[in-house]
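Changelog note: in this version the structure field was regenerated for every chain. One regenerated record is shown below for reference.
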Amino acid sequence: MPEPLVERLLRGLYSAVLYVLVPVTVYHLIWRGFRQAEYFQRWSERYASYADAPQAATVWLHAVSVGEVNAAAPLVDTLLYQRPDLRLLVTTITPTGSARVTKLWGERVEHVYLPYDLSGAVRRFLDHYRPQLGLIVETELWPNLLFCCRDRGVPVYIVNARLSARSLRGYRLLRPLVGRALRTVRVIAAQSADDGRRFQRLGAEAGQIVVTGNLKYDIAVDPQLPGFARAFRDGVGRRPVWIAASTHEQEEAAVLEIHRRLRRRWPELLLLWAPRHPERFRAVAQQAVDAGWRTATRRLTRAPDAGDAVFVIDTLGELMSFYGCADAAFVGGSLQEVGGHNLLEPAAVGTAMVTGPHLHNFSEIARRLERAGGLRIGADAEAVGEALAELLGDPQRRAEMTAAAAALVEEGRGAVDRTMTVVYADLP
């Protein structure tokens, strides 16, 4: 069967299934809205229904949520600095990603939600914003989006591209379609050679793949962060402090138990707790209260006082600042099969860190950090607690770990420059 006919059949079947599932998308928005009210807002963007006139041509970057926005930040900052003449559109899917875009760049970029991968919605999106170049961050492989960009002559690059072995297995049912969609992409700028090989197994061609490294290594540390950390530590005095960062619901019981055990040795120990999702802020604070600890939150008190045992960071965009306030960190999403979260943020600010074993989203970074002596990986929650206890009790070991991690971050920098070199030919 000719290749164009196979593509049309696969696209037609895929699109038909998506249109049948449109009522499910409405249900999903309602269900998420009860947990996070922002999902009740801006539905028109989800289906690419725009009230204003079509926009002038743009350079468009898509980053699904907070993690991808943070990863793309050095690249966006470079584009804004080097090409202030460009109109830059940043799309996300989640409200937390949207909030992060606004916090980082305000009105310097335009922002909307990316529509669902319905062919009609995608075409309306492209008609309205008329992108001259598309930069898709990490692993957002939406077939209709990629095919429609090809059909409109929009060059697309996948930047900071990563594909874990687990994600590759997850695409097995859609591999014939996704592989064809991948071959429409101009360049896949992969984080590592392993990521590049997995993209080839998914259907990309070898000539499309360039290894540019991980944009997360080009992380920028706010010059005000050291002053923030000093003021925070002056407020809490000589108390030991640890942070549980980007935790998920299934990890919360483990965090409570670890804190309980650690406080037996350090009765004045303070826990900074930053849940991954805003809908867990209130529940986490209530669990800490129910455990018998005096608990404060960032929104209500701004800073803990001497009587607080737990301080919940119920704000967005401040995690790196609070990493800098802690003696040791547990990076969440790693005690369950989420795949871990950004390990380079605590590394960049100089905080010794521990994770659980599930790190498939950051496997290369975790492997390099552990090999360099900048990361402890616990096999389970008990092992994570033991590693945290060792670090809290050993300032010299913490210093060695943070030095090793900082050196690795510095060594890994340069992905932004390499990525800019790759995409430069298609910048308008």
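Spot check on this record: The chain has a mean pLDDT of 94. The chain has 20 helices and 14 strands.
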